[in-house]
Amino acid sequence: MIVAIGTKNPAKVHAVQDSLISESITIVPVKVDSGVSEQPFSDEETLEGAINRANAALSITNAELAFGLEGGVQETKHGLMLCNWGALMHVDGGRWIAGGAKLPLPAGVVERLYKGEELASIMADITGEVDTRKKEGAIGIYTSGLVSRKGLFAHIVKLLYGQYLSSRDQTRH
């Protein structure tokens, strides 16, 4: 089976590869536009970006399934939180969504986000590393490496693929 992913970001691609390693599949990463802002600012916008990525990847490949994964931030009464969402689309129209863990961001980061900076550039300033979103991500930085961006997205991929597998087992529905 061919499975597309709507990105070439290594953290997201490896999340899919690692999560589905025991499956007999070919993974096809494709660069697509999320259709949302560079810095999504809500669960809804972040999820919309994931759905858009999955739909776009499915439409430009001959894949049976396509993943879309998107990171953003969400305002809560407890502060601005990291949020991560995923979508899985099947060529026959099936759709599954799942979200990941949330983590509050430090006040200095929040202030810069509200001024219009993107989280990736803030993380580059803080760490001195370029493209942390392709590596450990903000989640890795603020969990001292205990949770990586790849690991967070891998959890979402498993939630998505598990729903897909469950939907194929008619005894469960």
TrEMBL record:
<feature type="domain" description="Non-canonical purine NTP phosphatase/PRRC1">
    <location>
        <begin position="6"/>
        <end position="157"/>
    </location>
</feature>
<keyword id="KW-0460">Magnesium</keyword>
<comment type="function">
    <text>Phosphatase that hydrolyzes non-canonical purine nucleotides such as XTP and ITP to their respective diphosphate derivatives. Probably excludes non-canonical purines from DNA/RNA precursor pool, thus preventing their incorporation into DNA/RNA and avoiding chromosomal lesions.</text>
</comment>
<dbReference type="GO" id="GO:0103023">
    <property type="term" value="F:ITPase activity"/>
</dbReference>
<dbReference type="GO" id="GO:0046872">
    <property type="term" value="F:metal ion binding"/>
</dbReference>
<keyword id="KW-0464">Manganese</keyword>
<dbReference type="Pfam" id="PF01931">
    <property type="entry name" value="NTPase_I-T"/>
</dbReference>
<keyword id="KW-0547">Nucleotide-binding</keyword>
<keyword id="KW-0479">Metal-binding</keyword>
<comment type="similarity">
    <text>Belongs to the YjjX NTPase family.</text>
</comment>
<protein>
    <recommendedName>
        <fullName>Probable inosine/xanthosine triphosphatase</fullName>
        <ecNumber>3.6.1.73</ecNumber>
    </recommendedName>
</protein>
<keyword id="KW-0378">Hydrolase</keyword>
<dbReference type="GO" id="GO:0009117">
    <property type="term" value="P:nucleotide metabolic process"/>
</dbReference>
<dbReference type="InterPro" id="IPR026533">
    <property type="entry name" value="NTPase/PRRC1"/>
</dbReference>
<dbReference type="InterPro" id="IPR002786">
    <property type="entry name" value="Non_canon_purine_NTPase"/>
</dbReference>
<keyword id="KW-0546">Nucleotide metabolism</keyword>
<dbReference type="GO" id="GO:0000166">
    <property type="term" value="F:nucleotide binding"/>
</dbReference>
<dbReference type="InterPro" id="IPR050299">
    <property type="entry name" value="YjjX_NTPase"/>
</dbReference>
<comment type="subunit">
    <text>Homodimer.</text>
</comment>
<feature type="binding site">
    <location>
        <position position="33"/>
    </location>
    <ligand>
        <name>Mg(2+)</name>
    </ligand>
</feature>
<dbReference type="InterPro" id="IPR029001">
    <property type="entry name" value="ITPase-like_fam"/>
</dbReference>
